[in-house]
Amino acid sequence: MKETEEKLTNMHVGRLIHMMSHQMKRDSNSVASAIENDELTIMQKHVLKFVLLESLHRDLYQKDIEEEFQIRKSTVTGILKLMEKHGYIYRESVKKDARLKRIVPTAKAEEMRPKILEHIQKTEARLIEGIAPEDVLICKKALGQMLCNLSEMNKEENQKDE
Questions:
Q1: 49: in domain
Q2: Which of 51, 97, 104, 146 is most buried (CB neighbours < 10 A)?
């Protein structure tokens, strides 16, 4: 335990986050494999997972996917076209602005939601296993602040490039 603590003390925060991210991506690929079909690529499965989860709370648009995955509009358009072709989503016009298309999961996609939610709950439980709830909250606050710090740094750097 003392050796692990010493190792963590000397490790850069960025490296630890990178290692966590790598593990989460490995786990995320098992979620993608939980979407049992060969019609969709891994990326399309990740987008479908995002659509299924986020559409529970809000309306989703192409821009949301572009921002979440940090990918270009043309790439998202291609992904959504194929997902629509395979019957996982449909796009419907918004009354207030016909140019906007809301992304809606189909019944075929909805069938996958329980399995995905179950996987997320298991992963979350495993992540926080043995950690006091107040420590989990401190960790979330610290990670949230780090995310804001990086976002600000990126904004500043982008302004310099302009």
A1: yes
A2: 51
Instruction: Provide the residue range defining the domain that includes 99.
Output: 2-127
Q: Is residue 135 part of a domain?
A: no
How does pLDDT run across 59-76, given as a tens digit for each residue?
999 999 999 988 999 999
CB 105 within 8 A of CB 88: yes
Which contacts qualify for 144-153: CB closer than 8 Å, 24 or more apart? 146/13, 146/17
Q: What is the pLDDT of residues 87-141, one digit of tens each?
A: 999 999 888 887 889 999 999 999 888 888 888 888 889 999 999 999 999 999 9
Supply the CATH number for residue 21's domain. Answer: 1.10.10.10
Cα 117 from Cα 102, distance rounded (Å) = 22
3-state secondary structure of 96: coil
Position 36 scores a pLDDT of 65
Locate tokens 């309306």: which residue?
A: 59
Neighbours of 161 (CB within 10 A): 5
Is 132 contained in some domain? no
Number of domains in the chain: 1
